[in-house]
Each structure stands twice: as C-alpha cells, then as structure tokens.
Amino acid sequence: MILSDQQLIAIAKEFGAPVYIYHAEKIAEQYQKLVTAFKNNDVKFFYACKALTNVSVLRFIKSIGAHVDCSSINEVKLALHAGFSPQQILYTSNGIAFSEIEEAKNLSVNINIDSLSNLEKFGKKFGHSYPVGIRLRPNILAGGNIKISTGHDKSKFGIPVEQIEKIISVVEQNNLFIRGLQIHTGSDIENADVFVKGIEVLFDIIPHFKELEFVDLGGGFKVPYKDGDTETDINLLAKKVNEAFVNHPNPGNKHLQIWFEPGKFLVSAAGYFVTQVNVLKETSATTFASVNSGFNHLIRPMFYNSYHRIENISNKNGAEKNYTIVGNICETDTFAWDRKINEIHEEDYLVFYNTGAYGFEMSSNFNSRLKPAEVLVKNGKATLIRKRDSFGDLLKNQII
Ligand code: LLP
C-alpha cells in the first residue's frame, strides 16, 4: 500500500516542502500483519512511540487497537493526551531519575525498571503495592549496527542477567510484585531466532518470579530500506516464538502474556519525506543535488550510514544519471553518494522513502533552520498534523 507520486506532489504543493507525509492505512496494514500472525496467542503490541510521537498518529494507532510504549515521561503524557488509558501505556525506562518513575507510577501506567538502584528505591517506597516489570540485559548481540544494538554484553540497557541473584535479593527484601520481564535486543533485527534466544534467556529466570503475568520481548523488527531488503518474517517469528514456549514449559505453569514493542515496523514505511532541489552543482567528483533539508531533518544517513531510497517524483521518466544528494546545512550532510536517479532539475521534488520512523522524531533546529511540517493521509484525505516551525519558534525559549 503506497501513496502515489501525484498525491505526494499535490501535498508538497499544498503544504510546502520539506514535509513529512504519513499514510495511515499503511500503519494499519503493518499492525494487521502482527495481529494476524499472533492470532492464537495472548499477545499485546505496544507501539514504541519514540519512532514518531505526533499525537494525531498516536490517536490513529490507538484507534486500530494497539497499545503504546514510552521511553520518557513526556511520551507518557503525550500518550495520555492522545487518549490512551494508563493500562494501555507502558513506560520502559532507562537510566532515569527515580522521581520520573514515581511520576509514572502516579499516572498509573505500566512500568519496566532497568536498574537495581531504581528497583530498590521503588521497592522501599511502594513494596508490593504496585506491580512492575524488570528490564533485563540478555547479553545477545543483535540489530542492524552497533549504535542500535541494545542487548549485548557491553550495553547500558537493562539489568545484566548475570546479576539475577542481586535482583532476587532486592525483590525479596522489598517484597516487590514483579509482574513482567522485559528484553529489547536492538533495532533492524531480521532474524526471528534472536527473539527465540531472548526467550531462552528468560526461561532460566522466569521460575524465580511467582507472580509473573507477562514476558515482553521488546521491538526491533526489520523493515526493508533498500531494494532487495526483506522485513522480519512475522509469521515465521510467531511460529518460532510458539515453538519456543512449547519446548520450554513454564515451570510455574503460570499463563504468561507475550508483549512486543514495535516502533519502526509500524510507522517506517508509512512515512515519505518530500524535499525540493535548491541547487545542482557539477564537479569533477560528482554532480551534487542540494535539497532544502539536511541532517537537521533526517539524520539517519549521517548518524547510522542508513540507506533511504530516493526518487525524483517530478521526472519519473527522465534518463537516469548519477547524483550525490546532499542538504543545505553548513556541515557535511550527505544523504546518498553517487545514486542513480532520474534526471534532476532545480525545484524538482525528491522523495525519501521509509522515513516514518526516527525521521521527524530525531530532527533538530541545527543551523537555526525550521523543522518541517507533518501531514497525515487517511482515506485519501491529507490533513496537516504539525505546522512547519516559524521563526518565532527559534526565539520562543530564549531570554530576549
Ligand atoms: N523498545 C525499546 C525499549 C526500545 O529502546 C526501542 C527502540 C523499541 C522498543 C523500538 O524499536 P524498533 O521497533 O523501532 O526498532 N533511531 C534508530 C533506532 C533506535 C531505536 C531505539 N530503541 C534508527 O533510526 O534506526
């Protein structure tokens, strides 16, 4: 399910470029893949909203039945604002001040705690009265690149599984109600076996917690960025997860719900970033096409060496030529080096695909440039869901 070039150009003309455009039906299609594959399981999907927090997108995601995973108290507040109930919100914290965990508790949301010290503080203050999950570090290396790998044995995330004795002692001393165990090994994980390995790690630990209600396997499903890339095979994942549970009967025979926290999988392919070419520059090394954007709007290529497909939607039948696509900020901001693209003219619209996740969300005002607008397309209708920044926004918090 895709938006046509004509739709993208019409939206860029109406709302201006650069603009992030999200396709609601594509988000729903991705969500249905998960629901269908796991239809025989007691499963909950919490959308990892760090990928894209626009409240109109959150409201849409709530309307299709997903829950939401948050990584900061402000994401929790945005989710509440979007209409999620506290029970539908999961706060998977990492390295945060205890006061923020208390704030989440006061908002009655589900909480995963990722350090011994916060677990202990939580136990001392609330004892058995408020169930919590524990985020563990499974010591599994997985994910598209080291910057987005979070479960390996040098990662800061979660309490290392080898500290299980300490965890048990904190839980027992403070009579904590441990409701769930969580792991998240990374992003861009194509291989379903990674999740099976995670389950195997958890199965060694589960018997220590008699009140468990869920195991949370995190997010990280891969989406195809390049031609020829594949996405995580969700049906195979469901089959393998089910086999893993059958092969490792739960020692307490307690029914455990399975939770997932997909971010990219739900919103990445639904996102199109449309820019306009400012300048063409022929050089001996390459022909540069500078668009009216930069890593201030889409940082993934510079930050992770990520590949995004780029097309010239203003000249789809033009002869293909090699271009280096760069931005207009005063620092190297190469989006793609020597890429074959249909002939480009200044003012053409170039679209960057698969930019719904971690696109707008990781944007900044570097070079005092303005953040782009966001538009949501639903039932064929395009609606502005965030205004483009204005100059006043740059001064908003400054003492002038
Ligand atoms: N759960 C937790 C605890 C996470 O830290 C993350 C992502 C997710 C779920 C969702 O992962 P996803 O399904 O989106 O892969 N900015 C990077 C990705 C970093 C993700 C950080 N945590 C990128 O643009 O590739």
Can you walk through the features of this model?
- The chain has helices at 5-15, 24-37, 55-63, 73-81, 98-106, 116-126, 164-173, 193-205, 234-247, 264-267, 300-304, 391-395, and strands spanning 19-23, 43-48, 67-70, 89-92, 110-113, 132-137, 159-160, 178-182, 214-216, 257-260, 271-282, 287-291, 310-312, 320-326, 334-342, 349-353, 373-378, 381-386.
- By secondary structure, the protein is an alpha/beta fold.
- The chain has two domains: 38-264, Alanine racemase (TIM Barrel, Alpha-Beta Barrel); 271-395, Lyase, Ornithine Decarboxylase, Chain A, domain 1 (Beta Barrel), CATH 2.40.37.
- A hairpin with a 2-residue loop joins β17 and β18.
- α2 packs parallel to α9 (234-247), α6 runs parallel beside α7 (164-173) and α8 packs parallel to α9 (234-247).
- It is elongated, with a radius of gyration of 22 Å.
- The structure holds ligand LLP.
- Residues 48, 50-51, 69, 92, 148, 150, 184, 187, 218-221, 261-265, 300, 304, 357-358 line the site of ligand LLP.
Characteristics of this structure?
Lyase, Ornithine Decarboxylase, Chain A, domain 1, 8-stranded parallel barrel, 9-stranded mixed β-sheet, binds ligand LLP, 12 helices, alpha/beta, TIM Barrel, 2 domains, 400 residues
